[in-house]
Structures are given as C-alpha cells and as structure tokens.
Amino acid sequence: MAMTVSYSVVPRKNPAKKSEPAKYYAQAQASGELDFEELCEAITSRSTCTETDVRAAISGILYEVKRALKAGRIVRLGDLGSLQIGLNSEGATSVKEFTGSLIKGAHIIFRPGKTLAELMKILSYQQVLTRAVAQSGAGGDSGDDPDKGSGGSGSDDDEAPDPTV
Questions:
Q1: Cα separation values, 92 from 103, 107, 121, Å
Q2: Where is this chain compositionally biased, Acidic residues type (predicted)?
Q3: Among candidates 158, 161, 69, 63, which has minimal Cα distance to 106?
Q4: Mutual orientation of helices 36-45 and 51-70 as an angle, nearest 10°?
Q5: Can you give the residue ranges of every domain in the chain?
Q6: What is the Cα–Cα distance from 17 to 161, expressed in whole angstroms?
Q7: What is the per-residue pLDDT across 80-115, written as a single tens digit (0 to 9) for each?
C-alpha cells in the first residue's frame, strides 16, 4: 500500500557558490503533528497499558538512551532504529594537527530500523503549491507525473544538498 508524501519545490543557493543562481529542490511538507499527549493516548488505546504506564515507559527509555549515548554507546531500539552520537568538526592537515578545539558540535544520528526503512520503499510523491510559489506564478502543471520517482531515493529531501559532495 503506497503512502503519498506531499512536497513543495523551493529555491536554495549553494553556500559555496553564492554567485550562482539558486536551484530548485523538493521539500517534504508536513500535514500536522503527533504530540506526546496524543502519542501516549494512541498507544494506550492499542494496548492494555494505562497512559501512566506508557508515559513511565517512554520516560525510562529516554533516561536510558541518554545514559548510553553519554557513555559513547550505540542505542539499538529494534525495528524503530538506532541512535548514535556524531560530531561536526573542522578539518586538519594531519592527525598530529587535529585538536579537540576543531570539534564544533555534536548531533544525534538516527538510523531507521527495518520497519521504518521499508516504509521509504513504498512512497509516492505529490507536489503542493506553497504560498510563495503560487504568488510568483512558478507553480502549475509542469507535465510531470506527481508519482514520478516513487519508491524512495537516496537523498534527504528536507535538506539542501551538501555542496562539498
């Protein structure tokens, strides 16, 4: 069963080549949110757990994930996926030249598990007009099939391409 992802087309400049004109990229459009309260209620309705049980379990997972990440461990959450600390740093010309001061920050890397990865294989895509595109007159029927490219891609549609690649 296919799932349709709505996207808009947005201009993005290459930060490494600011003089070049912007290129246009797909950007996934959210159709709402699922907040913590609603998530707990939904899980409660699908199980024998009370909402308090669900909240306690999620709180316990968060506590243990933080402990494991602080200890430098990869956290594997079964079919949900895995979490790991990643670093952002400036480059050095050699290992001897590298110091901890070149590390600019950290982030959490999420790698989807099998269940979520399989979801990416059944996606279809439908373009939606954003207010800015509609006002510029750049939207409309381009003749492209809105489902073209279904089946997932190796790119991250929510971010501009990395100009260093």
A1: 11, 20, 39
A2: 155-165
A3: 69
A4: 120
A5: 34-73
A6: 13
A7: 999 999 999 999 999 999 999 999 999 999 999 999
